[in-house]
Amino acid sequence: MADQYYFRGGVHPAEGKKLSSGQAIQVPPLLESYVVPLMQHIGAPPKPVVKKGDTVLRGQLLAQPGGFISAAIHSPTSGTIKDIGVCMGPVGLETPAITIASDGDDTPDESLTPLNWHTASRDTLRERIAAAGIVGMGGAGFPANVKLTPPLEKPIDTVILNGVECEPFLTADHRLMLEQCDRIIQGALILGRILDVTDIFIGIEENKPDAIEVMRQKTAGTTITVAGLRVRYPQGAEKQLIYAVTGRKVPTGGLPMDVRCVVNNVATCAAVADAVNDGKALYERVTTITGTPVTTPGNWLLRVGTSVEEALKLVGGVKKDPAKLLLGGPMMGMSIYDLSVPVMKNTSGILLLASDEVEQFTSNACIRCGRCVDVCPMTLMPGSLSVAIENEAFDLAEAGFAMDCIECGACAYACPSHRPLVQHMRRAKAEITAARRAAAAKK
Prior knowledge:
Layout: E1 25-26, E2 33-37, E3 47-48, E4 55-56, E5 61-64, E6 73-74, E7 79-88, E8 94-102, H1 122-131, H2 144-147, E9 158-162, H3 172-179, H4 181-195, E10 199-205, H5 209-219, E11 224-229, H6 238-246, E12 261-265, H7 266-278, E13 284-290, E14 298-303, H8 308-314, E15 324-327, E16 334-335, E17 349-353, H9 371-375, H10 382-390, H11 394-399, H12 410-414, H13 421-442
Parallel strand pairs: 1-14, 9-10, 9-12, 10-11, 13-17
Antiparallel strand pairs: 2-8, 3-5, 4-7, 5-6, 7-8, 13-14, 15-16, 15-17
Helix pairs in contact: 1-4, 3-5, 4-7, 10-13
């Protein structure tokens, strides 16, 4: 089925994956302290259930969900609550955080007991996923239990696992599929049980032939199909992945459930298996630490709350001065300037770029070349939208479907005038959303 479809547009930037793709996942030593951000997901902020001076165990609940679209936060180790304050977040603003001083024992909390997913009710499995604080680990950080609770009028018939990892340089999901595929498969089957679905696909780009081979061997005899997909960024975006695997098009303003699909990252599936089978909360994740300035790029199982500074020590620091530091990949990652920023549940990579890999430029006027139109996977007209946004014609931007932009950066990558197209789209989304809220408030 995967050979029949591929999405329109996209680009193929230099991959940079060889720096770390051959490096097995490593486990770092325990740190003296961890600074755990409370906002690690889309939705309402969680509410702390601990206070300064409290003793906690590894995996113990630190903050409970603050609403239906929210997620629990758990301690990455055992120790003492040193502070409930703030830390620097990835967007350059302070965010609420809890600091934990490790006791060195790493004693686990055992309040979440293992479940038999074959016999447990679907509601019980959803509740366990929520209790474990599982969110989308591919980047968005959307609470997993919410995805698994579609409205009755939108039944799901297909589950898709995202093993594409199309962002350049990142290899965390690749290594997870090679080394811990059983966890992923178990998680996929659990999702299938929750949604009462047997059609399960794992989408993997064909630049990972070893992962495709391993996953096909391990899924033989199951209801899971491994789909080898054409290498093209952003193949891992939900709507593009759904189309590539099923041929279904998510409607404008719609969600995957509108075409009877649910998409989850392979790391999220592994976390689901841990939560159900072992009673383990989500307090650590595999993260790629890489880039040409990095001394020894690799993939590490980092605990939430590990600072970027401590993470860089694991790879021997840098062998030359970096020009840019990113959380995530070069296409959609967030540039940071403070090494105290902590790793979160959706931190897939820590990427350092050298000066010859970073281009400093001045934006120029749109020359109407149409390259952005050719590469846009959402069939938008980014150049025309950009001009409208520059002139603050947000009504025209809304009419031109600016809200459908997935912010993949393909348009900016292809633009010869170096226009800040993604930034324009983000501004338009913010302005359109604010206008809609204002209009709703007047009714």
